[in-house]
Specification:
By secondary structure, the chain is an alpha/beta fold. The chain is 40% helix and 16% strand. It is built from 27 helices and 30 strands. The strands form nine sheets. A six-stranded mixed beta sheet has the order 4-19-10-3-9-8. Strands 22, 25, 26, 27, 29 and 30 form a six-stranded mixed beta sheet that branches. Strand 25 and strand 26 form a beta hairpin. The chain starts with a strand and ends in an 8-residue tail after the last strand.
Amino acid sequence: MKVKFQNNFFGLKNKLFSDWSTEKVLIYFQIPSPHQSKKFLEFPLLDLLEANMELVMDDEEAFIEEFGLNRAQKNIVKKYIKELQYSSIQEVCSPILAADKLDELSLQVGLISAFLKFSKVTSWENIIAKMLLLAFLEKESDWKRFWKKLTDNGLRDVLAGKLFYYFGEKPNEINQEYLTHLLQKVRYNQITHFIQEAHRDDPYKSLKIKDKRQLTSMFQLLQEASNHPQIGERLEKALAWVGKTIHGSKIIDLYGVEANYGFVSTDMAWILLAGHCENLGFAPNRTIQHLEKILISHELDEGVRNAYDFFIRLGEMIFQINSISSYTLNTPEDYLIAYTIDWYKIDSYYRRAIESYRNIQSIPDDFDLDRYYLLLNKWYDTFLENSNREWLKCLSEKNFDYQTIKAPKQYDFYFREIADSDVKTVVIISDALRFEAAKELLGVMHGDDKNIAEIGYQLASMPSKTSIGMAQLLPNKSITFNKGTITINGISTEGVSNRQQILESNRDGAVAISFNKVMSMPLKEARELFKAPVVYVYHDIIDARGDKKTSERGTFNAVNEAVQELGKFVNKLHHTFNVTRVFVTSDHGFVYQDQEIEEKDKEPAPGNGDIGNHNRYELSTSKQKLKLGYCFPLSATTKFEDGKEVFVTIPESINRYRKQGVGHQFVHGGGTLQEVLTPVINSYRKTQAIAKKVRPIVTNEAQLRIVSNILRVSILQEKKVSRTEKELTLIIGLYKENDLVSNELSIELNSVSESPTDRTRKVELILNSSAINESILKLKGFDSEERLNPIFEIRVQNQTIIPTDF
């Protein structure tokens, strides 16, 4: 009988003297013969070895016997037997150590994989990449060990042949200097991938790979290696290091900022940014297109991406401002329409630009970012000044009398929207939520396909301060100002408990509560709360942070938090608490300018604010005569019964009154569009999904070609997300029949922007090596929630086909 030793000497000896005592036994030991060892006398079965016979086979025969190979494969085994006897080599090569799989090429790949310490047989792409790293980043002793293994096993020429296949050259000697050269070649060809001919003055033109097959092979190597968990990140670091020797500034000087670069380093990104932004003032749209193309097509670090986003928002703001033909309109209604359709976008672009500006990191010394920060503020300040100067001038012609303006008023909100409601209704009043932020919130809410949300507006009272705005939003048939101690039906409007009392006097069971208290409630208690017919929820993030001198610079961060928090809360009200109707509004808006307001730019206060004053208003018992600014009765913009006895004074446009101890960048209280045009979002539920999803369009369908195993696709979200068009998660990839043969990408089509540029996504699909020689493939796009039927299916020609001559 034949027995394979299982590394248990005691058990084997026991079997030989008991169960197998009458058998003829052939024992196979997968270890060197003790006769060839210095530890001969220590062999545990020495007595049996000496009392019996040892069958001596040559190493190749033993290996063939062990792995069940064919005798015809003996020459291959003999050639590499020294390595094949190592258990570590056998472990890596085990999938190919079989009669039907073993051939010399496969074994060479397996051996080199093992030499490079891969845990299993890998691809040539990963082998070449790991070799570059081994020689470039690892210990010199590791490289010498690897190189000796190749030499001892006659594999140097095999490796050299593969280097020619991928890089188009056969080296006389492979050393660190040569491998650095290869890395430089990779980086240069990444950069100039889409540049057909090298410039005659290009100092790196000798690195250019002109053969399409070799270029495709090189990119296939990069793609394969980048996906390997032990190689990808380290290879990119090596390429970044050698990339410093290829000066992007020289390449850009020769080929220009508008060239189609296949790779953009951080240094190049800054140079391209500086070049494109020279045209920002007079050609913002063209600049935006160039910057978006770079941003979408290349993996830039976060700091650079924030810089690009800053300039894109700056360009969008300039473009929007330039589209204003005149700030002088005919009626207050015209200003309200202009602001709610177009002008609010300028506030939004400014906010986003400031957010991105603050996140920019590691700015090159020669990049003048301050110049563009000043430009941003100059354009925005001019817009604020011009638009609001004319708006207030137009209002003054109406004596600030809201009754003459055909627009919803804040003081009518309760009786217009709430009083006659016969469904459960929640009113969220978010302190200082201005219109442009509410438009962003609306986009978040539109992501729910069972939600119908619409936005309107209403005119907040002046002065646009919290105590007045909050009072105007309550049921207010009998409301008095009382020199600032506001009451409705004799009940103070200050504090949540008083407001609940006022609400209950108009609707039994109505509730007023702070947002923070709702969030701290157990779910069961909250469910009971929202069974009430009307619930007023008071939310305060923006004003709480912006209205303090020490934290006003955090205003825009507070806006972002408020939008996200409110979006989740509205969703929870509908889904968890079964509230049918939700309103989101505010007491007032705000003006924020990021540049510090200097003392010389502040006005002296008129000085008669005997009832109250701040940096944007005064309240007094007498009308003031002003050279600048406006004075009008409080009753003009409110429903206070004693409002005719109180006068409101506000400064010209966005001016501030000089006041100690308060912030001047975040302000409210005046009469600008940003302060008094407050949002009213009306959100309600349907039991079934009420909208279709946005439709994706491949805008470059006619030009779709796979070149160097890369397909670039431009996807346009046909319409913005709205109450009738919901967001779509699009899954795209390249297919051979029903088999995915590229990376698969998930694209969120959820833009609420009016601009087609904002709704465009540009992506790259990388063809797998398995389909590199397929002439026709299909680009397919699916809804992530319905993978059975594609939304689109487009035939794509593959111009990457590689001849099978190697």
